Amino acid sequence: MVWKSQLGAGLLEMASVSGTGNGTLENIENIENIENLESNLEALQDVEASQVMAYFESKIPVVVDFMVMVLIALVFTFIGVKLIKLLRRFVRGWLERSHVDKGVVQFADAFVKVIAYILLFMMVISFLGIETTSFIAAFGSAGLAVGMALQGSLANFAGGVLILGLKPFGVGDYIVTGTDEGTVSEISLFSTKLLTLDNRAVIIPNGTLANSTVTNVTTEDYRKLDLKVGIGYQSDLKLAKSILQRLLDEEEAVLKDRPVQVFVDELGDSAVVLGMRSWVKTEDYWNTRWDLNERIKLSFDEAGIEIPYNQLDVHVHGAFGGAGRAGEPADSTLDNSSDSALDNTL
């Protein structure tokens, strides 16, 4: 290495020249630095390029082995994902064949998916030689912190478990809770999805459902149908009751093996309120209710039975547009009544 010797000599000469203009102490320090530089240059002279190449060549097998492990890990991950999908399909099929509630099937599928992917991740990193104990400790610490930050989510998860365990409702049921109501379409890990009558999706946290009052409209096979209709006091009561009884007897959806009743429910301020009570299948409830309401109105119109309604009667005392007597204002009164006709007295 001739160039290294020349470089050392040149640096020594430069240090000696620069040292002539400084003090003795600086000259001594420069000489020591030059001696250290010469020793380093001598060490560099002993290092051959072949040794550097040999070092990198010795690391090639390690790199190749690592790349092979990464490739195997990718293949293992691909196979694992496929197996997880098969496992989920098997679990869903087994639960469906067992006639388990659809909400339980959805919840179990989501739970199996999360646990299976966590196990797959731990197996892959363990195959790559990464210590899983450190990950477990990290997951434990992170789980504590996340648990403190996501208390609401954990409450929703617990609520989902309670819903599936106690089964206050299931997928396909029509429920009413607070200001929301609709058909349950999905029960997931943290929330429940409702579809309203106008096909809007309402997402309700499971924790809220588990801690609130829920009315399950469709949990039973049969529903009682109650209808009320008012008639005027001057109308024929017995005729009205016979018409209502006939309508119930003619309605096919009304269950004939259950009590069917027509009765006077109330003597109101402006009407005699008649009640109708019968039983129908849950799926026929609304159609039967709408059909009976229409037929009641048409039948009462044909029979001349009046259904009272609130209206305004105006009574004007005195001359039209003037006073009753000279110097006296007209006397006008407004009265709310339920008479069948508008009575204008001028």
Principal-axis shape: elongated
CATH architecture of the largest domain: Orthogonal Bundle
Give a quick account of the main beta sheet: strands, pairing sense, barrel closure.
Answer: 5 strands, antiparallel
In total, the number of strands is 10
Q: Indicate the mean pLDDT.
A: 77
Helix count, DSSP H or I runs of 4 or more residues? 9
Describe the structure in brief.
With 346 residues, the protein is an alpha+beta fold.
Write a concise keyword list for the protein shown above.
three-stranded antiparallel beta sheet, SH3 type barrels, Helix Hairpins, 346 residues, 4 domains, alpha+beta
Describe the structure.
α1 (2-19) packs antiparallel against α2, α3 packs antiparallel against α4 (102-127) and α8 (237-250) packs antiparallel against α9 (285-303). This protein has 9 helices and 10 strands. The protein is elongated, with a radius of gyration of 46 Å. It has 346 residues and is α+β, with helices and mostly antiparallel strands. A 5-stranded antiparallel beta sheet has the order 4-3-2-1-5. The model is unreliable at 17-23 and 322-346 (pLDDT under 50). The longest helix has 49 residues, at 49-97. It has 4 domains: 2-46; 58-149, Helix Hairpins; 166-216, SH3 type barrels (Roll); 222-303, Alpha-Beta Plaits (2-Layer Sandwich). 10% of the residues are buried.
